[in-house]
């Protein structure tokens, strides 16, 4: 898989065949990476935990997930995936665009169900656990698509769509919540602006004044909002993001450590080395060597 795909806060890389946007990424934390930073995209995403324990965050709420758990992430939701304590986790990222289920000619499956779900008028649970109602039926749809995706025989697209339609039939007929989940849309949109700014400028010198002006807040209000929302200061979050990007580049590129430090926004190599070692428990050079041995 292309790890750097997951390093943009708003993913723009098309998933799968443009004419049939459905794809599955097998992932392992921390073997492939220690975390997938907070991001969002226009596709639906199913996170299917195969083994182990990890943590996901959706719209600022955190959940510990274990083997068998299925998480349904609707388009536009801010979400992240990361290591939980010292545990490891193997999972699938199943990503598809809802457009493959929507007829060009308007029908009630779209107007009464899919469109209201995507807009938040209708709501279904985020997590589905083994043993819970409907879990076996939902898992069977995903497992069937996994199996046919191994070979993709002629016409496999019809099979995949049929299982997705079955999955949503189960959701709408048996899992609808009585009340839509409450979301702080104003706060979510504000955070998206901040994260988008960070995505575009993390390699540059960023000041609190710069990013607070971008979202129309005073510096003091911005710092308080970010701390209360994310549980950490903006500077700490920025450093964590830069180090995450550096760790990916150490694995995926042959650039020198100095070049990578500069590329992710560190002007001083010694400071970068110290900060990286504090975060990952080893120097960038040792991190690259260890990661190369695991490949």
How many individual domains?
A: 2
Secondary structure: number of strands: 8
As a percent range, the share of strand residues is 15-25%
SS-based structural class? alpha+beta
Into which percent range does the helicity of residues fall?
40-55%
CATH fold-level topology of the largest domain: Jelly Rolls
List keywords for this structure.
about 300 residues, alpha+beta, 8 strands, 8-stranded antiparallel beta sheet, 2 domains, disordered N terminus, Jelly Rolls, Arc Repressor Mutant, subunit A
Descriptive report:
- This is L-rhamnose operon transcriptional activator.
- GO terms for molecular function: DNA-binding transcription factor activity; sequence-specific DNA binding.
- Residues 192-290 form the HTH araC/xylS-type domain.
- Keywords: DNA-binding, Transcription, Transcription regulation.
- This protein is of the alpha+beta class and 295 residues long.
- It folds into 2 domains: 3-175, Jelly Rolls (Sandwich), CATH 2.60.120; 185-294, Arc Repressor Mutant, subunit A, CATH 1.10.10.
- 44% of the residues lie in helices and 18% in strands.
- The protein contains 10 helices and 8 strands.
- The protein has helices spanning 108-119, 135-148, 156-175, 185-201, 208-214, 219-230, 234-252, 257-263, 269-280, 284-294, and strands at residues 22-29, 35-39, 44-58, 61-66, 70-73, 79-83, 89-96, 127-128.
- Strands 1, 2, 3, 4, 5, 6, 7 and 8 form an 8-stranded antiparallel beta sheet that branches.
- Strand 3 and strand 4 form a beta hairpin.
- Helix 2 packs antiparallel against helix 3 (156-175) and helix 5 packs across helix 6 (219-230).
């Amino acid at each position: 898989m292309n790890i750097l795909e997951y390093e943009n806060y708003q993913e723009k890389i098309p998933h799968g065949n443009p004419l049939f946007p459905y794809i599955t990424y097998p992932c392992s934390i921390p073997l492939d990476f220690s975390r997938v930073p907070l991001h969002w995209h226009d596709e639906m995403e199913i996170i299917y935990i195969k083994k182990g324990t990890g943590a996901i965050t959706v719209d600022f709420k955190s959940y510990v997930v274990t083997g068998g758990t299925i998480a349904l992430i609707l388009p536009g939701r801010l979400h992240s995936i990361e290591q939980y304590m010292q545990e490891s986790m193997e999972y699938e990222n199943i990503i598809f665009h809802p457009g493959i289920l929507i007829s060009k000619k308007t029908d009630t499956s779209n107007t009464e169900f899919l469109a209201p779900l995507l807009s938040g008028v209708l709501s279904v649970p985020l997590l589905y656990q083994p043993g819970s109602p409907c879990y076996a039926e939902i898992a069977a749809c995903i497992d069937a698509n996994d199996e046919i995706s191994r070979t993709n025989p002629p016409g496999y697209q019809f099979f995949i769509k049929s299982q997705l339609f079955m999955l949503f039939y189960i959701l709408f007929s048996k899992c609808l919540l009585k009340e839509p989940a409450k979301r702080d849309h104003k706060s979510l949109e504000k955070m998206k602006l901040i994260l988008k700014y960070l995505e575009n400028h993390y390699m540059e010198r960023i000041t609190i004044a710069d990013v607070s002006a971008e979202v129309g807040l005073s510096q003091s209000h911005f710092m308080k909002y970010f701390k209360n929302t994310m549980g950490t200061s903006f500077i700490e979050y920025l450093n964590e993001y830069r180090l995450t990007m550096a760790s990916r580049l150490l694995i995926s590129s042959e650039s020198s450590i100095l070049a990578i430090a500069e590329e992710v926004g560190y002007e001083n190599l010694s400071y970068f080395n110290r900060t990286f070692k504090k975060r990952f428990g080893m120097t960038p050079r040792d991190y690259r060597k260890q990661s190369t041995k695991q490949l």
